[in-house]
Amino acid sequence: MKYLVVIIGILFYNLAVSCQSTNDTSKNMEVQERAEANFKNYCVGCHNVHKSSFIDRTWIFGDKRDDIFKVIKQGKVEHGMPGFAGGLSDDVIYELTDYIMELKVMPPLGDNADAHAPIVVSENQKFRVDTIVSGLDVPWGLEFLPNGDLLISERSGELLRFTKDKKLEKITGLPPIKAAGQGGLLDLELHPQYAENGWLYFAYSSPNEVNSKLANTAVMRARLNGNTLVDKERIFKATPESDKRHHYGCKLEFDREGYLYFSVGDRGNRDRNPQALDNDCGKIHRIHDDGRIPDDNPFADTEGAMPSIYSYGHRNPQGVCMHPETGRIWSDEHGPKGGDEINLIEAGKNYGWPVISFGINYNGTIFTKDTAKVGMEQPILYWVPSIAPCGMTFVKGDRYPNWKNDILTGSLRFEYLHRCVLEGDKVIHQEKLLQGIGRVRNVEMSPDGFVYVAIENPGKILKLIPID
């Protein structure tokens, strides 16, 4: 009888241990699933799960559990990282911290673009995807020289030339560049009469000459002498400078009349910059090709206003392009958590940031309940959730007849190329292309009518070749 009691006791103990183990496993799965959901909800808009983000990264503020927890909770505003204390409890932040710590020890993922078939069949256009350039980091601007060479700006502060014989050459002579956070060497643009005058324009984050912690968006023009920049002229520098490392803009576009349009982000000061005309941030600007201010700019004669401002109330526009038939300027723009936009840019108009928005704070809290207000423009299109649009072009020419005059923009967050079909000034249809291809940083049309797509981390340039 004594042995029977012992055996029964052992059985009950093992059953209890088994149940506890099952409960612990179930609880751990719930925590893991919740942490993964929160990571997707709060983190992937700015970070991805490839080796460029948490795997093999340099941890500026420490890689220990408490270090990561502190950064998530308190944020690093000057680096564009919001604090989540107002929206997440400490327990949830620790769950998220543990999830990120598991990510950082994962083996690096391979180049996921290689898993895609080279032939893509979209809704109404078949095409092949060719990798033209590889081995890059974060390619930002693309521009094609008349001889067929491709200029590539790396956000890290390098200007590269990819030659017709497939050599990648470095161009020297760049000005000082604050390559940190979202700053660095940004967009490229050739003068419409480049063949006659040789002017190359580029945008970059320009550091203060005395205090290198301060910087803001600048535009310079220069000429190429072989692989060296000469005749350099800085034709614009945004004010005020800031020690924050995000929301620089900046995309460049010439219109038919030869005016240069470009975007400057709000530089992380949404409560002051975008709605005030006495600064350059949160604006789209228009200048002459040499930096002079057009007489008919909407605020050229407004006391206290920056005369280069063309439109205002913007957050961080990273796509500026001209419609090939109407000649009107369009832009795409990063919202906060939700509320990315496509806008038709018109002189003197206020696009509402941050007074109106379809988004919320990154930590889930609300900063405005208004999505419309008298005197403020509505977007042509907005995305909720945010796709993180970057780069923008209209499809020109006849190589893609079923896409003619459609908008193409990249999605950093969801890693695809986004196509918008227009009817007049309205988006009547959308399509996702190249899903899972990687973070799309830019999309451009070449002079001979092909679509080129810039992917980051690992950086490469793709060419979409249409197939009948």
TrEMBL record:
Record domain Cytochrome c: where: 30-104
Keyword terms, alphabetized: Heme, Iron, Metal-binding
Pfam families, A to Z: Cytochrome_CBB3 (PF13442), GSDH (PF07995)
A molecular function (GO) term: metal ion binding
Domain of life: Bacteria
SUPFAM superfamilies: Cytochrome c, Soluble quinoprotein glucose dehydrogenase
InterPro entries: 6-blade_b-propeller_TolB-like, Cyt_c-like_dom, Cyt_c-like_dom_sf, Glc/Sorbosone_DH, Quinoprot_gluc/sorb_DH_b-prop
PANTHER family for the chain: ALDOSE SUGAR DEHYDROGENASE YLII, HEDGEHOG-INTERACTING PROTEIN
Record's protein name: Glucose/arabinose dehydrogenase, beta-propeller fold
